[in-house]
Amino acid sequence: MKRAGKQTLIFQNPPAILSSSAVVGPKEGEGPLKKTFDLVMKDTLCGEKSWEKAECKILQEAVKIALNKVDLKPEQVDFLLAGDLLNQTISANYAARQLAIPFLGLYGACSTMIESMILGSVLVDGGYADTVVAAASSHHDTAERQYRFPSELGVQRPLTAQWTVTGAGACLIAKGSGGPRITSATIGKVIDLGIKDQNDMGSAMAPAAVDTITQHFQDTGHSMDDFDLIITGDLASLGKALAQQLLERQGYLPGDKYSDCGILIFDPTQDTHAGGSGCACSAVVTCGYLMQNIRSGRYKRMMVIGTGALLSPVSLLQGESIPGIAHGIVIENENGYRDQKEM
Amino acid sequence: MKRAGKQTLIFQNPPAILSSSAVVGPKEGEGPLKKTFDLVMKDTLCGEKSWEKAECKILQEAVKIALNKVDLKPEQVDFLLAGDLLNQTISANYAARQLAIPFLGLYGACSTMIESMILGSVLVDGGYADTVVAAASSHHDTAERQYRFPSELGVQRPLTAQWTVTGAGACLIAKGSGGPRITSATIGKVIDLGIKDQNDMGSAMAPAAVDTITQHFQDTGHSMDDFDLIITGDLASLGKALAQQLLERQGYLPGDKYSDCGILIFDPTQDTHAGGSGCACSAVVTCGYLMQNIRSGRYKRMMVIGTGALLSPVSLLQGESIPGIAHGIVIENENGYRDQKEM
């Protein structure tokens, strides 16, 4: 059976994550996870003439580093699945041009990394591809000027706001063994409880995250007990607290098994307010910190839930609220995953 | 074997297109294909307060009509794969909120309809879904003001420009029989020959279209002779002529077997200059006219090549050229498809 319940895909030949990489900007490189990144850029322009070009470069670097780790060249990769936050996802498009890997562009806002890992796993598990790279990027300054105000204006940010992570994550998903396994995935619905404050995206996305987590439990019969870690993408402090409440209201007691990439990536002293956000938030934490911990065996089975706020500045100006989406993926330690399945 | 050559997926259990629908604006409803559309909107606002909201409504209508034809409700569909041209693909996001079908957002510019049909076919053929809706939309006025100038300004358009189609196409892809079959698909690379004129997108996309068509031939051993029709998404008159030249230079003589949705959808008297464009161009021609002709048996096997220009206004302002991408899908008449495979 390749689907459980309504929304969960079960991979019969769980694809392996052969390698992964996380490239970040200088601020992220000073944060608590600094030792888990493969490359920290010296500045936010990365030698380019614009932040947009810098973001595209970071994304390419992340893909190249992931491939270098296993001595693969871009032309040996079957497909690239990637996306980002910029209008018309230009970081991914231009990176795909440079890498010359057959390309499928995705847009799931900050859930894009997990969306690309899910579809990449489908292509590999289903036998359509041997090797797929899943990747996503974001950049603080490109996001600020596109969604809010140009950084140069120095507009004050409310304490509910999150800091878009500058960085990119990439992982090489392939058939066979040689790394953590992607064993199942839950594709989310768009959920909208009516929040209109674009400075509180975490709260807007929390209901979607909880819907996907609980749907995964319903579909598979699993519970919190079956996971060492359940981690959302970028709900940050407000959204995480709300998600926790919503989970508890439904009878799930996540306790300290539940965490959020947007909280892990920055230190409260870094003045990012509620925490991190952006496609790169879940991408670099998953491809760096989380992958290291699942490889080491600290986590035997975890669920990473990419969370996306599906607004645009235009939709907000036209009076719309902010819908959220969340896609979940279950990653298991390579040695542990068969035993875990018996549970 | 589920993949042939480098870039072509072969569907072992070719998914059926159980139903499809095409909804268009008034201008398209006056064009040569008017009898092939399911619904022609009376005006471009469709009773909404903005063109963006109208586009979202058109997309929802297209999905509902496709489902109504086979007496299905949105909650009976496993997954929705959709995208559009607007920043952050808001038409698809808000439509997915209203339809409440688990959702994967895509961005492939005007290739999005074919990208969604490919990934939808993978999910169904691979056994991960029983029913998937693939859909895409565009709207002339939302595209004009986002990419070029607000329609109200009345800026003169050069003769190389194309007219973004107002409309949406949707098709229901399912396992089993009951409609035309999707038998294979070729995922394209990003190709960029350096064109920077955003008023000549057809020429920018033509090299990608030809790359995907010839890759499909290389991967499968098929040739022009194996198809009744090879049709590109929205190269329009300039791009089509260029694609034809490039194909001939490689020894392929497409003759009158090769056509383009952007040429079919408007009449030269409609003052659209080079022809139609936008996600909806290939979407409504495929889901309307082409599907009728493949159902009737006029075409036994065709390849539809969705073509996308992967620029943004920002990337052009920063001096970038316009990269193109093209994804191809092979659709066969239900009764003919097994014989065709023997070829």
Automatic annotation (TrEMBL), chains A, B:
Signal peptide interval: none
Domain of life (superkingdom): Bacteria
GO MF, any single term: acyltransferase activity
Gene3D superfamilies found in the cross-reference section: Stage V sporulation protein AD
InterPro entries: SpoVAD, SpoVAD_sf, Thiolase-like
Xref: Pfam families: SpoVAD
Name listed for the protein in its UniProt record: Stage V sporulation protein AD
